[in-house]
Design a protein that fits this description.
The structure holds 2 protein chains of 2 kinds. Chain A is mainly beta. Helices cover 0% and strands 52% of the residues of chain A. In chain B, the strands form 2 sheets. In chain B, strands 2, 4, 5, 9, 10 and 11 form a 6-stranded mixed β-sheet that branches. Chain B has a 5-stranded antiparallel β-sheet with strand order 1-3-8-7-6, with no helix packed on it. Classes of the chains: A mainly beta, B mainly beta.
Chain lengths: 112, 114
Amino acid sequence: NAGVTQTPKFQVLKTGQSMTLQCAQDMNHEYMSWYRQDPGMGLRLIHYSVGAGITDQGEVPNGYNVSRSTTEDFPLRLLSAAPSQTSVYFCASRRGQTTEAFFGQGTRLTVV
Amino acid sequence: GENVEQHPSTLSVQEGDSAVIKCTYSDSASNYFPWYKQELGKRPQLIIDIRSNVGEKKDQRIAVTLNKTAKHFSLHITETQPEDSAVYFCAARKSGGSNYKLTFGKGTLLTVNP
């Protein structure tokens, strides 16, 4: 099994550009989440999903959109990139509410 | 919502010593407390977790204790080794309803000096 796969691994955007970070899991997990990791800030939840067709906002949702059309995929869209969105982004999935979260390898995004 | 405080933010120990990282949580309804280890440039990975019906859990050199009354839980690493050097995150999940979110602490950078 591949687990949780994120693409791309690195990305540089100009302010105002849009892009989609891809996340796919092959473990048939219900729960998927997007986090951003900034120095000294830990992992902050952006958006999450509890199943296909169901998404909700996390702690820092502004500037990001998500959708969950299938169990496997949970893309994160940046609508109009800003320098404040420079960060490392992690996608995670888990089978149940109190089970291990499996993380993707991360996407390092720089907005200039 | 849930708030998780983690201390210390950095911890340096000598190889063979013990390391303790502490977390407090705000919501008494939280019932699941995992710990993740993140090596430099890598993804976070679960090392141990504990549920609210248990006071302590051990896995070789790693143990986690939970004090529900005080709303805090701790990670204990004994006989530390250089490969234990990493950032450690605690997290808490509130039980009930549609709350599926894991709230993470800000992390502890552990350095084990040979």
